[in-house]
């Protein structure tokens, strides 16, 4: 039995097509196929098929559908009853969506060392794509499956573009990317790869035409220009400037960057600052850009987007490390040196030796290092390249003031227009486009924080028939707002917790700052004066100022005007929670 989900659902058995019945019956089969041979409880099947509004006799209906599927088309579907639920007794190689994911992962990995071989694997994956996944069935769960597969599809196209650039821009890759851009017309990373491939293939006029169409789309849909990296690439094509040298299959550096967010809106000024900062550094050292901001404000999203935007300028390697869990610098350097194929016998265990070797290996090369979620300047000191031509991009929730010659970008919430645009992009049903007032209210209740907005967008996708006013009502209650802004994988509350916990578990000054944070949640106004904070804290003026400065440094407090100190609305909700939990 072969199950095809990457388009209208199809089942094939013994070389022939099998009729699997109604749309709901097909959904039951899909619900058991992702993944197969894993028990799926009847309650989960019901949720995947009907969502929050199942029919009165949903369980009996599922039993009926399974009985029919077992005899569909005269060929028994291998559905078994196991402890914990029903299973589809086929291997993952019988489900095209799972084969597709495996091939894309394998192709991306292979392309790092062998672009030609990686491209072959990626083409095998892309050949499985027949159009909109699960095209002939509809449910909230099917929408989530489609969104995930669309993201993998976009990653495969971008990886094929990277392989094409590494091979010098063969015409067939450019032609394949044209179809991808038609599907994802607002994906700047994909558009840039198409323009790059066309330029390398001496198809300059087509590259310019792609950019012109992209500008029109961005103006119509987003009301803004494409980002600075795409604009600069357009200028290079326009003036016939030679692109950076593109190494062949044996010289292409490792690419370890995470995939860019599928939806990225706004940040035009910040994008330009970051991209220009990475491309135009000091003559005697590598450019360094540090993006800092409140948890959930989108620093990592911006950094990954910018890293992909400038990736062609760093053909010798794009390295990445997430420092959130506090990995030892020697371990990170060891991974970097392994990726750069510099230590066939294993990296040095001593951090100073490893750092010296890293500086030596990257000298004279063009390598980009993205260090995500840095705790402080000391954590990244040995991980930053030392020579011109390389670049470092760092994100942190703490101001990294000790970084010499760095371009610092202090990231705040999105603007009201950007927040509404993001919600419109995330809402495939058109509700946000049709109800501007409720959309604006939703954006405000999310504090215009990108993480909160994306979680709301996920809820919009999961409940396509629910009116926007329902979401507004649920978020308007400050006591439950942080509960609403959480999913199984992401949480606004969890983004604030590390900064507060680091203070509460820190030295004496930090512990007093944690207490000051809890006390600042008491007033209802948008901000307080230093004098009011002094009375709240019960401290002398110099200590009050020191505590406020520490809270500003970790982005739990902000100062928008002289002698005025306040919190982001969602941070205040969190501070009131921890005040109840930890005392005042």
Question: Main attributes?
Answer:
about 575 residues; alpha/beta; Arc Repressor Mutant, subunit A; Serine Threonine Protein Phosphatase 5, Tetratricopeptide repeat; Rossmann fold; 5 domains; five-stranded parallel β-sheet; three-stranded antiparallel β-sheet; 26 helices; about 55% helix; globular
Structure overview:
- There is one protein chain.
- This protein is of the alpha/beta class and 584 residues long.
- It has 5 domains: 1-162, Winged helix-like DNA-binding domain superfamily/Winged helix DNA-binding domain (Arc Repressor Mutant, subunit A, Orthogonal Bundle), CATH 1.10.10; 167-252, Serine Threonine Protein Phosphatase 5, Tetratricopeptide repeat (Alpha Horseshoe), CATH 1.25.40; 268-411, 3-Layer(aba) Sandwich (Rossmann fold), CATH 3.40.50; 416-484, no CATH class; 492-582, Arc Repressor Mutant, subunit A (Orthogonal Bundle).
- It is 53% helix and 10% strand.
- It has helices spanning 23-33, 42-50, 58-70, 96-113, 115-126, 140-166, 171-183, 188-200, 204-221, 228-238, 268-279, 299-310, 329-339, 351-362, 377-380, 416-426, 431-434, 436-445, 450-462, 468-476, 481-484, 492-504, 508-520, 530-537, 541-553, 569-582; strands at residues 2-4, 10-13, 16-18, 79-82, 85-88, 288-293, 317-322, 367-374, 391-396, 407-411, 527-529, 558-561, 564-566.
- The strands form 4 sheets. Strands 7-8-9-6-10 form a 5-stranded parallel β-sheet, sandwiched between helices. Strands 1-2-3 form a 3-stranded antiparallel β-sheet, with no helix packed on it. It has a 3-stranded antiparallel β-sheet with strand order 11-13-12.
- Helix 6 packs parallel to helix 8, helix 7 packs antiparallel against helix 8 (188-200) and helix 8 runs parallel beside helix 10.
């Amino acid at each position: 039995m072969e199950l095809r989900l990457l388009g209208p659902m199809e089942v094939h058995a013994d070389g022939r097509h099998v009729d699997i019945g109604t749309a709901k019956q097909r959904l039951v089969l899909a619900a058991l196929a992702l993944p197969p041979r894993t028990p799926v409880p009847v309650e989960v099947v019901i949720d995947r098929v009907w969502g929050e509004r199942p029919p009165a006799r949903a369980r009996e209906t599922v039993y009926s559908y399974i009985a029919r599927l077992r005899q569909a088309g005269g060929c028994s579907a291998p559905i078994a009853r196991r402890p914990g639920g029903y299973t589809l007794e086929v291997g993952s190689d019988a489900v095209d969506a799972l084969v597709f994911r495996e091939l894309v992962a394998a192709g991306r990995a292979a392309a790092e060392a062998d672009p030609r071989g990686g491209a072959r694997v990626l083409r095998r994956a892309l050949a499985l794509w027949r159009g909109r996944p699960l095209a002939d069935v509809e449910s909230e769960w099917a929408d989530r499956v489609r969104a995930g597969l669309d993201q993998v599809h976009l990653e495969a196209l971008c990886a094929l573009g990277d392989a094409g650039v590494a091979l010098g821009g063969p015409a067939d890759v450019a032609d394949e990317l044209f179809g991808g851009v038609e599907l994802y017309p607002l994906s700047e990373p994909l558009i840039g790869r198409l323009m790059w491939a066309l330029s390398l293939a001496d198809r300059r006029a087509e590259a310019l035409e792609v950019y012109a169409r992209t500008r029109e789309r961005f103006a119509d849909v987003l009301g803004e220009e494409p980002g600075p990296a795409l604009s600069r690439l357009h200028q290079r094509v326009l003036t016939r400037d030679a692109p950076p040298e593109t190494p062949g299959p044996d010289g292409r550096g490792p690419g370890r960057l995470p995939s860019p967010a599928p939806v990225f809106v706004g940040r035009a000024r910040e994008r330009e600052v970051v991209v220009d900062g990475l491309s135009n550094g000091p003559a005697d050292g590598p450019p360094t850009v540090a993006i800092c901001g409140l948890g959930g404000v989108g620093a990592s999203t911006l950094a990954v987007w910018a890293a992909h935007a400038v990736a062609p300028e760093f053909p010798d390697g794009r390295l990445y490390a997430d420092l959130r869990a506090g990995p030892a610098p020697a371990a990170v350097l060891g991974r970097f040196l392994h990726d750069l194929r510099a230590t066939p016998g294993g990296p040095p265990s001593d951090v100073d030796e490893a750092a010296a070797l890293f500086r030596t290996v990257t000298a004279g090369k063009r390598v980009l290092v993205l260090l995500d979620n840095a705790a402080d300047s000391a954590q990244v000191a040995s991980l930053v390249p030392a020579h011109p031509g390389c670049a470092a991009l760092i994100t942190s929730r703490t101001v990294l003031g000790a970084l010499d010659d760095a371009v610092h970008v202090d990231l705040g919430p999105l603007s009201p227009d950007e927040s509404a645009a993001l919600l419109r992009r995330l809402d495939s049903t058109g509700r946000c486009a049709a109800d501007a007032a409720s959309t604006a209210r939703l954006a405000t209740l999310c504090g215009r924080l990108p993480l909160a907005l994306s979680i709301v967008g996920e809820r919009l996708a999961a409940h396509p028939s629910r009116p926007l006013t329902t979401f507004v009502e649920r978020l308007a209650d400050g006591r439950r707002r942080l509960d609403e802004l959480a999913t199984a994988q992401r949480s606004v509350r969890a983004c604030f917790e590390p900064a507060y916990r680091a203070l509460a578990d820190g030295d004496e000054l930090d512990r007093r700052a944690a207490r000051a944070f809890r006390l600042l949640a008491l007033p209802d106004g948008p901000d307080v004066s230093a004098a009011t904070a002094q009375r709240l804290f019960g401290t002398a003026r110099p200590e009050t100022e020191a505590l406020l400065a520490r809270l500003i440094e970790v982005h739990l407090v902000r100062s928008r005007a002289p002698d005025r100190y306040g919190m982001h609305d969602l941070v205040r909700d969190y501070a009131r929670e921890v005040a109840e939990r930890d005392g005042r």
